[in-house]
Amino acid sequence: MRYTLLLLLAFCLGACAKKPMQLQTGIWRAVLEIQGQQLPFNFEVSTNAAGSQVVTIHNAAERLVLDEVSFQGDSVNIVLHVFDAYLRGVVKGDSLLGWFNLNYNPTYKLPFKAKVGQNFRFVQPATNSVTKNFTGKYAVQFYNEKDTAHAIALFEQTGSTATGSFLTPTGDYRYLEGSVINDTLHLSTFDGNHVYLFEVTKPNDSTLLGGHWLGKSRFRTWAGKKNENAKLPDVALTYLKEGYDKIEFSFPDLNGNAVTLNDDRYKNKVVILQMMGSWCPNCMDETKFLSPWYDANKNRGVEIIGLAYERKPDFAYASERVKKMKEKFGVNYEYLIAGVSDNAKAAETLPMLNKVAGFPTTIFIGKDGKVKHIHTGFDGPGTGIYHEQFKERFNTIVNDLLNEKQ
Where are the alpha helices (DSSP H) in 227-342? Predict the structure, then answer.
C-alpha cells in the first residue's frame, strides 16, 4: 500500500510540475510604440538542436539570429545580437508584452507587444488594393531644423508589399520592409539598434513626400525626385589636415596592451583602419564583409585594425562589447579600444583628421605608411548593386596599394 501511494505521489508531482516557460514557435508580429506611431517587425521563434530557443528577426532579406534567449518566471529576455540592448517581456500564451531597452542608456525604453501566428508586417496583402507603384530610384533630401541631408532612395514594390533602403554619405539604412496602404507606402526596420519608420506619399509619377521617425524622439520630413542617374555628392567628408600624410596613434588592444602602426606586425604592409563601434549596425555589416575578406587576403601583405569607439569610456565595458562582436563574427584581425562614439571626441583621438563624420570610416594606408584613401560609411547588402560596387572599389584600392613600389 505504501509503495502504491509513493508511486501515485511521484506521478502527481511529475504531472503537476510546472513546465519551463517558452515562447510558441513560429512567426510573430511585433509592434514598437515610437512617438505615437506603431513600428511593426517580424521575428521567428525556433528551437535549436540543444533544445534552446532562438529568435530570428526578419527585415526584408535579412535574418538576424538572436541566440541568447532566457526565461525567468513568466518573463523572457532576448539579447539583441552584438548590441548592448534587449527585448524583455511577459509571456501570456500567444502574446508578449514588454519593453525594448538599451543597457548603456537606462532612460531609453520603448514599449512593444507581439503575437504569434501573424506573418504580415503592416497589413495582410490580400486586404489591400493598390493603384500606385513606388518602385524606382529617387534623389532625396531630408529636412530638419539645422540642415538638409542628401540621400538616394531605392524601392522595389510587388503588389502591395515593398522593400527598400536609403543610401547616405555616411552609410545606408539597411533593410526596409513594408506595405502600400491606401496609396501610401509604409516601411520599417528594427535590427536591435536602428528603429526606423517611414511613411511615403506619391503626389505625381516622379515625386515622393515622406516622414521619417527615428527611435524615441527624432523626426524629419523628406522629399524625393525619381532619377535613375541619382548620385550622392562626391565630396570627401574626412581627410588629413594640411601638413599630415600619416596616421599615428597608440591605443590598447582588448587585453590592455598598447599597439601602434610602428609595431612589426604592420611595418611595410598595406593597413586598413576600420573606425567602428559594436553599437553600429552599418559597422556590423562592414565587419561581416571584412572578416572573411581578411582571412582570404591576410597572406598578401595586408592587415586590418579595428579602432573601436564605444558607448562608454570605461575600458572594461568597451573591451567586453568588442570581444563579443569579435567572437560573433569570427574576426581574426586586431581590435583596439580607441575612444567613445561621439564624432567630435573620436576626432580628438586622431588629431591629424579634419573630423569624423560618421561610423564606420575606413582609412587605407600604403606600404610606405602614408594615408592613401579615406572612405566614410559602408554600402551594405541591403543596397543591392551598390554593395557589389563597393566591394569592387574596395578590392581595387587594396590591389593598387599592394602593387605600389616603395
Answer: 281-297, 315-328
